[in-house]
Amino acid sequence: MYRDNYITSLRTEMVEMVKTYLSPPALGYGYSDVPLETTIKWRPIVLILGNYSSGKSTLINEFVGADIQAIGQAPTDDSFTIITSDDNVSDTDPPRVTEERDGKFLLNDPEYPFEILKKHGQRFAAHFRLKKINSPFLKNLALIDTPGMLDSLTERDRGYDYQDVIGDLAQLADLVLVLFDPHKAGTVREAHTSLRETISARTFEDRVLFVLNRIDECASLGDLLQVYGTLCWNLSQITGRKDIPAIHLTYSLRAAKNANTLPDSENFLSLLENRRKKLKEAVLDAPRRRLDNLAAFIETHAERLDLFTEALVEYGTARRRTWIKLGVIGFLTGIGCGTAAFFAGMWAGIFQGVTDPLTLAASGAAGLSGFLAWMLLPARFITSLIRKKRARTIDTLLPLTTQTQKDAWQAIRPLVLAYLEKTRGKFSLGECREQHASIHRVYTDGTREVRKALNELMGLADDGPGVTPSTETEVRGGLDKDTGQPPDILA
Ligand SMILES: Nc1nc2c(ncn2[C@@H]2O[C@H](COP(=O)(O)OP(=O)(O)O)[C@@H](O)[C@H]2O)c(=O)[nH]1
Ligand SMILES: [Mg+2]
Known about the structure:
By secondary structure, the protein is of the alpha/beta class. It has helices at 2-28, 56-64, 103-108, 121-125, 152-155, 162-172, 189-198, 201-207, 221-239, 253-259, 276-284, 286-348, 357-376, 378-392, 403-423, 429-458, 472-475; strands spanning 45-50, 80-85, 97-102, 128-133, 142-145, 175-180, 208-212, 247-249, 460-461, 464-465. The site of magnesium ion (MG) has 6 residues, from α2.
């Protein structure tokens, strides 16, 4: 409980940090079309993928402790189902579906993070739903059951882009389980392509778990090894790596009993650990994974926005400098024009002397006209040339020393150009400086505090402070002495 509360309040604070400091500039500078917190504000999510009848729904029913999802050998269920808890119904009652909602509701309710899926259209909306279950298993998380992958020919009849949907869901998910069964251990390419495209290589290993399910259906250990070998080969072909990702071997005891695939205790299965429990633990660990993902989210976006605003500050400062120079030239031009008018007037005998009001007015007017003419015509022309040149040499605006900086710059470069194009380089430099300073603080101090809080979490046992601490502060595992809350990372 203690640890759960810590995780929940830390999550809230991190989302708040994004909302307060990163979202406003992200929206203002066209870095993002929706508030950044849209995809992270909801509860931790576990996405369950796999071929049809690889046992996804069976696994989910086991986790939540009730038969809430239809199961069957044929492609039974062709919907994406969000399965989460109903906080209004006691979770001591036997688990059951307490509320169902359709896709239209889910895609439009701002409480949920699924607005980004609207683009997949009506056909997708008709295959998207929410089920609330009063299961304690779902207290801090949501599962997503998916329709199985079919062959690519039938894929086209779906009416929406299955791979794109999977990609978007994977982006929202804190953990992705990819299930295979012995009959179809070879058909993994589609799922893997969408995952590779959306989950960064850096976090892929942490986020995706491969599961070979229904292993009770292998006739012998030899049969299993054959299947395992095929799957490993396919995965390594697709990942392009020589090392093979860990594959969890498992089966549903209940389904196996029903199918009568457990003939005797001599069966090879008795030699293997059924990884059901490990999978369950991994799924229940999703809230902690969410914190890691949030930390990475904050780091990535803070770094990019930091660079974005720094580039704008540099650009704005250079622009201001140019205008000051042009202003000085304009001023001198004005003086030149005024002086010329004075001498011309004197020479022509129109002016009576330096103190003559006509002399003053006419020379002043000539000076002012000279200044304005310069500023409105040549100076404008020059700045538009300079603006074009700066757009071409935008990469030299900032000294990018590290590879992560270079990557971050590549990600935002088109957005910076689009913003400069849209504003024609005219934006408030002062405001931009302020934004940059506050984002920079999040990027440096904020992310450090987040990492510190996460380290403290590692020292916390399930029901209270972990490790035997020696002082009062250590006892609280870094929590506030009075409130028992995590340190305020926004402070
Ligand atoms: N023998 C055996 N059958 C299983 C296992 N898991 C699921 N099944 C059966 O496989 C069929 C498809 O399961 P289902 O959960 O609907 O697969 P889904 O399409 O991936 O959701 C059902 O008839 C299940 O009873 C298992 O571990 N062993
Ligand atoms: Mg299913």
